[in-house]
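I am writing to request your help with a piece of structural work I have in hand. The matter concerns a single protein, recorded as an amino acid sequence and a row of backbone structure tokens. Could you please explain, in whatever detail you think fit, how the structure tokens follow from the sequence? Thank you for your consideration; the sequence and its tokens are set out here:
>
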Amino acid sequence: MIAPARAAAFHILLKVSTTDGHSDELLRAQEVDALTAQDRALTTTLVMGTLRWQLKLDARIRALLARPDAKLAPAVETALRLGAYQLLYLDRIPAHAAIGESVELAKVAGERFASGMVNAVLRKLVRLPRATTQGEQGSAAEVADAYAHPQWMVERWVQNYGLEITAAVCHADQEPASTHLRLLYPDAKSSLADEGVELEAGEFLTTARRVVSGDVLRSAAFQKGWIRIQDEGSQLVAELGGHGRRILDVCAAPGGKTAILVERNPDAEITAYDVSRRRLEAMRRGFANGKERVRFEVQDATAMELPPEYDLILCDVPCTGTGTIGRNPEIRFRVSEEEIARQQARQVKILSRALEGLAPGGRLMYSTCSLEPEENDAVVKECLERRHEVRLVALYGEVERLEGEGVLHADGAAKLKKSALSGGYLRTLPGIHRCDGFYAALIVRD
């Protein structure tokens, strides 16, 4: 019999490898939620660990195949990776369990004839040294190898951020991503504490907390809508946008940033656009407060035609997501330099359209969760060159405003000014800041 956690992990990993499914969403599926707390935790460990170290796992596995360049069926490849991760990276998993159940998973998936090969390869792996990230990391190639990232990706990060910061980003990508909360009600902290959820202060925001331990999803505070799970970097982007009476969020789903705009602008008329009707409906259902003040509309942001009537626009565009690899490790296999260029072209269209909707004196916050300059500075630069009535505004003044309003605590404001506002843009980096990687730029119409 296959243990529930291994069966769940196998099916998620197979879906990630054969579809465009995302591991973080699949780990929140009903099938995983039905598992015991212990099995949910093991499922998460197996899925995220296997994806994080997949490049190194594949190298070890391929070296032991009779034909290292042979094309393996997805189910066989997934069973091998899952077994190899347990053998090479987890101390408390018995080898016989990791091997035996990986063989059974291949059989159940219809690959009975390959199960013998799965058994043979994993038994050879047991005799090899365990995996380690120790060793020289003095070049992009060495950092890529140590932290199982594509070399081309690490090389471009080294070019843009330097070797030391790149190594910190890659190291952070291999660690379990922190769970951040936004406190929405005063009683939330005490309620969570009563249920054994331990929190620590956010790095920047007074309403943000990082979960140290405990099951937040099953807490009364979560069930009552007293808290929202949202990365602190995401919260920060929405806070920096400021205030307005007519507000538009042009790529709104899943809605965390829109919810902050509702919270901070109680008298505003707010419109939320998204190209996906399904995601927009899920966003509407998920709104705990203020949805009666939000107009939800399915709209393709690359083709929208806006009258110049909005005094605040949030333009948080679709992107490669390379700032969230710690939370979505499969991104490293899905992104290419061609994909970066494709995203940039779409982002220029969206920002150009969004700028048309700014009223005189209006503000637009452009943001991504990408680390790539082509999706960030380059998009802003191209769009500003096309429109002479808009200009970039450095975010230092916004940080001071938020500190004065009590939204940022003093240490957070100081850290932002010191390490995250290069050139007046916001740029958070995993491993440097305790949040995902975000970019934001504030544009104002004169």
